[in-house]
Design goal:
Mean pLDDT: 96
Bound molecules: NADPH dihydro-nicotinamide-adenine-dinucleotide phosphate, (2Z)-2-iminopentanedioic acid
CATH superfamily of the largest domain: NAD(P)-binding Rossmann-like Domain
Number of domains: 3
CATH topology of the largest domain: Rossmann fold
CATH class of the largest domain: Alpha Beta
Shape: globular
Radius of gyration: 23 Å
Number of strands: 14
Distance between the termini: 68 Å
Length: 474
């Protein structure tokens, strides 16, 4: 005969199996809904792998959330968010120094204006196409929302590559590009900024042409020179912000940047200032790269060496390989920095530059944290590996939001017609990054770990989704 207390284990076994069954049913409902959604998006956007990758990564967090919050599902918010509000595509004719007729293609993707005017950078690189700009514009919507500033999302650019062009060629290109773009943007409509291949020089030429065509001096672009409306700390903001985010992430595990070996991909705007902040906080930057290869400097890239890199990249527009002629270091030709043993890895160059193989290497080498300074530099499989091995991982829409956040502060300063001090802007940037980190924890906490991907996606989604519902089916 079975006694009452002997029934207890049976009851628990039964309850556990029942719960597992419910979980499986719920999971499969999630998965089938995600698959059906992605299938439709794929059909409508074939040939745009980066866009589909970005949508998939968001859908995996947002669809389960909308199943629990049906107001978003009923209003078909995610279906609306994957359709840009408007896309402009145009011809950019310009003349080379030797009088050749050159033709490039220009784009602006105006993705979502639910919480503010379209805001996002311009990318000039030969590989630019509509799919890449749609992925960047889609990410921007969530990122801008996370900053808590009133900015919608957009992105633009051209398949023009400033590398190897003279200053005058770049100026003629920028003037031609803006001659068409100017009718689609404005300080309350759409406010572009920099991205790959678009820095202070390009923003200056673009601003000059906009001012000439519109006959007004306005805050239509951000990342401007400080002499004509730019914000202090804007050049530093993305890199600094990324490191502030890492500081918060490590803080959760009672760790600090001090003494940590860091490898950074890229040696452009984001990489340079990420390196500067790591050095300031006592970390050691041992590798940086450009699209040709990696420099490995075991003694550490200090302030003096970093100044040299900044001059090489920003003024001389040279190649990083030249570093080893000047300083004792190894040059790894055609190799990415992920081979180098480190504690912290900051991918700050471009999308999909860190794949599963690279992630495996980082895991084997004992890396503890990866934060994306670039947009979507880690592939889906790489991110899964980081999660599986408990490597802290920050997605770009959270960790690189400092750049656009200070762009938002530049817009505020332009509207107020005054300029804040370095300290004031840096303090605000620091606060914004802390708040984004807190948002990620709020929506991404899972048992005893934090899923920053989920946290950033849901945290960015809610504000935009609520605004879209409030504004009706537009
Ligand atoms: P820059 O043009 O200043 O620098 C880009 C760097 O990345 C360069 O070192 C470049 O090398 C390298 N790079 C570019 N493309 C590739 C590639 N296909 N393979 C390997 N290396 C490559 O750009 P930013 O620093 O402004 O932007 C870097 C990343 O950060 C981008 O993903 C951008 O979207 C993102 N980002 C930028 C923000 C900003 O405020 N600027 C804000 C948020 C995100 P090379 O010199 O050989 O071309
Ligand atoms: O990807 C990005 O967030 C940027 N390139 C910065 C955009 C901006 O408007 O400052």
């Amino acid at each position: 005969m079975i006694k009452g207390n002997q029934l207890v284990p049976f009851f628990y076994t039964f309850a556990e199996s029942f719960l597992t069954l419910i979980q499986i049913l719920f999971m499969s409902k999630h998965q089938s809904e995600i698959n059906a959604f992605l299938k439709k998006v794929e059909e409508r956007n074939s040939g745009e792998p980066e866009f589909l990758q970005a949508v998939r990564e968001v859908a995996e967090s947002i669809i389960p959330f909308t199943l629990e919050n049906p107001q978003y599902r009923d209003a078909r918010i995610l279906e609306r968010m994957v359709e840009p509000e408007r896309v402009v595509m145009f011809r950019v004719p310009w003349l080379s120094d030797n009088g050749e007729f050159m033709i490039n293609r220009g784009f602006r993707v105006q993705m979502n204006s639910a919480i503010g005017p379209y805001k996002g950078g311009l990318r000039f690189r030969d590989t630019v196409n509509l799919g890449i700009l749609k992925f960047l514009a889609f990410e921007q919507v969530f990122k801008n929302s996370l900053t808590s500033l009133p900015m919608g999302g957009g992105k633009g650019g051209s398949d023009f590559d400033p590398k190897g062009k003279s200053d005058l060629e770049v100026m003629r290109f920028c003037q031609s590009f803006m001659t068409e773009l100017f009718r689609h943007i404005g300080p309350d409509v759409d406010i572009p900024a920099g991205d790959i291949g678009v820095g202070a020089r390009e923003v200056g030429f673009l601003f000059g042409q906009y001012k000439r065509l519109s006959n007004e001096f306005s805050g239509v672009l951000t990342g401007k020179g400080v002499q004509y409306g730019g914000s202090l700390i804007r050049p530093e903001a993305t890199g600094y912000g990324c490191v502030y985010f890492v500081k918060e992430m490590l803080g959760v595990r009672k760790m600090a940047i001090k003494g940590k070996k860091t490898v950074i991909s890229g040696s452009g705007n984001v990489a340079q200032f990420a390196a500067e902040k790591i050095i300031q906080l006592g970390g050691k930057v041992i590798a940086m790269s450009d699209s040709d290869g990696t420099i490995y400097d075991p003694a550490g890239i200090d302030d003096r060496k970093l100044d040299w890199i900044m001059d090489l990249k920003n003024n001389k527009r040279g190649r990083l390989a030249e570093y080893v002629k000047r300083y004792k270091a190894d040059y790894l030709d055609g190799v990415k920095p992920w081979e180098v043993k480190c504690d912290i890895a900051l991918p700050c160059a471009t999308q999909n530059e860190l794949d599963a193989k690279d992630a495996q290497k980082l895991v084997e080498n004992g890396c503890i944290a990866v934060a994306e300074g670039a947009n979507m530099p880690c592939t889906h499989d790489a991110v899964e590996l980081f999660h599986k091995h408990d490597v802290m991982f920050a997605p770009g829409k959270a960790s690189n939001a400092g750049g656009v956040a200070v762009s938002g502060l530049e817009m505020s300063q332009n509207s107020l017609r005054l300029s804040w001090s370095r300290e004031e802007v840096d303090l605000r940037l620091h606060d914004i990054m802390k708040n984004i980190h807190a948002t990620c924890i709020r929506y991404g906490k899972e048992n005893d770990s934090i899923n920053y991907v989920k946290g950033a996606n849901i945290g960015g989604f809610i504000k935009v989704a609520d605004a879209m519902i409030a504004q009706g089916h537009v």
